[in-house]
Design brief:
By secondary structure, the protein is α/β, with parallel strands linked by helices. It has one domain: 3-Layer(aba) Sandwich (Uracil-DNA Glycosylase, subunit E), CATH 3.40.470. The chain has nine helices and six strands; from the N terminus they run H-H-E-E-H-H-E-H-E-H-H-E-E-H-H. Strands 1-3-2-4-6-5 form a six-stranded mixed β-sheet, sandwiched between helices. A hairpin with a 2-residue loop joins strand 5 and strand 6 (149-154). The longest helix has 24 residues, at 167-190. The radius of gyration is 16 Å and the shape is globular. The two termini are 28 Å apart. The structure holds uracil (URA). Uracil (URA) binds at residues 42-46, 49, 55-56, 58, 60-61, 82. The site of uracil has 12 residues, from helix 4.
């Protein structure tokens, strides 16, 4: 069933479908341009995100924001969300049943935004968005087309903070994302869109 943004946000904010609701401070539904061409999907809220109710506002969020700016966009021009909308305790990976309980929200968000390009930040985002086990080390920068949307696995910003030598490869991915958006825009103009 197709939902609307207000309906979806209300549903996510009141969600008690899994145990993560018991330990959260705030739900972190996602934010940004509801019709963005570019969407980022992370894993799940961390401590700062849980406290503020906003995605990617801690250290890895600061890095993500800088990387978005580096490809000529502002945070407000993209849509940012996570696989799970509530913080897993101690920042552990979301468990399969937790991710499964949240997956329809992610699907609805993608359906409402209708982005052209989705950057999948890390293995967990790849696993649930593509329903496939992906080695980010091997597959980062490659495109996966699904129903007209281009998905790219890339490094999670927290991996870049842990291992700065990955930043070079991550920057290459972000340039590919910028180029793909330009290509899509140019093709759209040609067709008078
Ligand atoms: N890590 C994530 O995967 N998501 C956030 O929102 C913050 C950190």
């Amino acid at each position: 069933m197709r939902t609307s943004w207000p309906q979806l946000m209300e549903e996510i904010s009141a969600c008690e479908k899994c145990r993560l609701c018991e330990t959260r401070t705030n739900v972190v539904p996602g934010e940004g341009d509801p019709h963005a061409k570019l969407m980022f999907i992370g894993e799940g809220p961390g401590r700062d995100e849980d406290l503020q109710g906003r995605p990617f506002v801690g250290r890895s969020g600061e890095l993500l924001t800088r990387m978005i700016r580096a490809i000529g966009l502002e945070r407000e021009q993209v849509y940012i969300c996570n696989v799970v909308k509530c913080r897993p305790p101690q920042n552990r990976n979301p468990q399969p049943d937790e991710a499964a309980a949240c997956l329809n929200y992610l699907r609805a968000q993608v359906g409402l935004v209708r982005p052209k390009v989705v950057a999948l930040l890390g293995k967990v985002a790849c696993r649930y968005a593509l329903q496939q086990e992906i080695s980010v080390m091997r597959e980062h920068g490659n495109w996966y087309e699904r129903k007209g949307i281009w998905f790219m696995p890339t490094y999670h910003p927290s991996a870049l903070l842990r291992e700065p030598s990955l930043k070079r490869a991550s920057w290459d991915d972000f340039q590919k994302i910028r180029d793909k958006l330009r290509e899509i825009e140019a093709a759209g103009e040609e067709h008078g869109e």
